[in-house]
Design brief:
Layout: H1 9-20, H2 23-35, H3 39-67, H4 71-82, H5 87-123, H6 132-138, H7 140-159, H8 163-189, H9 194-202, H10 213-224, H11 231-238, H12 245-274, H13 284-295, H14 299-332, H15 338-357, H16 373-400, H17 403-410, H18 416-450
Helix pairs in contact: 1-11, 1-12, 1-14, 2-10, 2-12, 3-4, 3-9, 3-10, 3-11, 3-12, 3-16, 3-18, 4-5, 4-16, 5-7, 5-14, 5-15, 5-16, 7-14, 7-15, 8-12, 8-14, 9-12, 10-16, 10-18, 12-13, 13-14, 14-15, 16-18
The chain binds 4-fluoro-L-phenylalanine.
């Protein structure tokens, strides 16, 4: 466990909201919405964020708060109390964090690339060409190099234990980022394409949903709320006794969703302007935004500021992932130093980045239908494994804590709403989550087998 101890409510929110907010909101959400046909998927997403993501998020915080441990030790501790064994189930979120960190590093490397590009354009003579993203995707060595730089920065922060200072600093930057995002929304929605975009995003055409849409929405809800990684268990272990867990869960989900909508309003008007059809691949945001900055008055400086802030959010999320891995290793293998655990996990993640980084070059022939390797990795991790790992984690806290303990941690005597919500929360974790996750999986599998995805 780290030495971090958040005594203030403010500090805790920095951690939890900071971990939820990241590339998932501005980069991943728009392309997943594009891939799944717009409005109907957006509705499905909101519904699941409230009924599935938020309840499991509260459960993970509760597990950390109850045990004051990171996920693997937390599971061990409640195994002793409840007589049930959760060893394998509790290791899965840590493995998930490691693999996701490697692929997240490649995307963070893309952000670094644009910081460099904008700096060069601003202070040098080069221009950001429209094919900048294309050429980056084809350059596996550069992507691997940038991902390594990102991992190294993350590693130094975690090993040196300087995340407290950095996170606070990032926290102060976030209002500035929010300001940039609002300006971008305003600029982007004043384009002539806004009506079309509003129709696409808010007119629910259910015929556009596919057999995979439910599974895609579940995967993204977990990814964006950082559920299923054990990170929220670690954060829950820092939370003060007088904080009300359901309120924390609600706030995290609320802020995260607002930012995700910001992402949609920024990206889609530009996409519709750039081409008549909706582009649905992971390069979406990186294709359209730099071009827009390029054409905007003062856009180079604005673009640089935007990508620097986005990078800080990506770094914060990566720190959360690496911190989860390191704290679990150190807790499990007593005597191992944080720096050894950090270097071991950092190097393993670096090795794993090779696959996504070389997706557009060395592995460019490795495709399944329309999807290249990086999309396949994304889909396998976030849509395939993450829902199951999150379900396993929910099983741990549901079975490991008695009803009385759950009730004590959930209900705040002063808040009437927490009395009335407790049965709903139990229902969501006990019945709704397993049924909807498994249904999503089966439909997706059926779609894959019959070619209807
Ligand atoms: N929630 C982050 C995002 O939306 O970008 C991704 C993430 C960060 C997942 C940290 C898990 C985590 F521990």
């Amino acid at each position: 466990m780290t030495s971090r101890n958040w005594h203030t409510r403010f500090g805790f929110y920095f951690l939890a909201v900071g971990s939820a907010f990241g590339l998932g909101n501005l980069w991943r959400f728009p392309y997943v919405v594009g891939e799944n046909g717009g409005g109907a998927f957006v509705l499905l997403y909101i519904f699941l964020a409230l009924t599935l993501g938020m309840p499991l998020l509260i459960g993970e915080l509760m597990l950390g708060r109850f045990t004051r441990q990171s996920v693997m030790m937390a599971a061990k501790k409640i195994s002793v109390n409840s007589g049930k064994k959760f060893k394998l189930l509790s290791a899965m979120p840590v493995v998930m964090s490691l693999v996701v960190l490697s692929y997240y590093s490649v995307i963070s490397g893309w952000v670094l690339h644009f910081i460099l590009q904008f700096s060069l354009s601003l202070f040098g003579s080069s221009q950001i060409g429209s094919g900048s993203m294309m050429s980056l995707l084809k350059n596996g060595g550069l992507q691997f190099g940038l991902a390594s730089v990102h991992l190294l920065i993350t590693l130094i922060v975690v090993v040196k234990g300087i995340q407290d200072g950095l996170e606070k600093w990032i926290g102060w930057m976030m209002p500035f980022f929010a300001f940039l995002v609002v300006i971008l929304i305003w600029r982007s929605t004043s384009l002539s394409t806004t009506t079309e975009v509003m129709r696409f995003l808010f007119y629910p055409d259910f015929s556009k949903l596919t057999l995979s849409s439910l599974n895609h929405a579940i995967g993204h809800v977990f990814f964006t709320l950082s559920v299923g990684f054990g990170t929220m268990v670690t954060f829950g272990s820092y939370i003060r006794d007088d904080q009300h867990l359901p309120t924390v869960g609600l706030r995290v989900a609320f802020f995260d969703t607002i930012v995700s909508f910001g992402g949609l309003f920024i990206v889609f008007p530009l996409v519709f302007k750039a081409s008549n059809q909706v582009i649905t691949d992971p390069a979406l945001m990186f294709d359209v935004l730099p071009q827009f900055f390029n054409e905007m008055n003062g856009g180079l400086l604005f673009g640089l500021a935007f990508f620097v802030c986005l990078y800080m959010a990506a770094l914060n999320a990566s720190i959360g992932l690496l911190e989860t891995i390191v704290s679990n290793i150190v807790d499990t293998f007593k005597g191992m130093s944080r720096s050894r655990a950090g270097w071991m996990s950092g190097l393993t993640a670096l090795f794993l980045t090779l696959l996504p980084a070389l997706s557009g070059s060395f592995f460019s022939e490795t495709r399944l239908g329309q999807k290249g390797l990086i999309e396949l990795i994304d889909s396998l991790l976030i849509n395939g494994f993450l829902p199951l790992v999150a379900l396993g984690l929910s099983f741990i806290f549901f079975k490991g804590l008695s009803l009385k303990e759950k009730e004590r941690l959930f209900i705040d005597k002063e808040k009437f709403v927490s009395y009335s919500m407790f049965p709903q929360w139990i229902f969501a974790v006990q019945w709704f989550a397993p049924v909807v996750i498994i249904l999503g999986w089966i439909l997706h599998l059926f779609g894959l087998l019959t070619g209807h995805v």
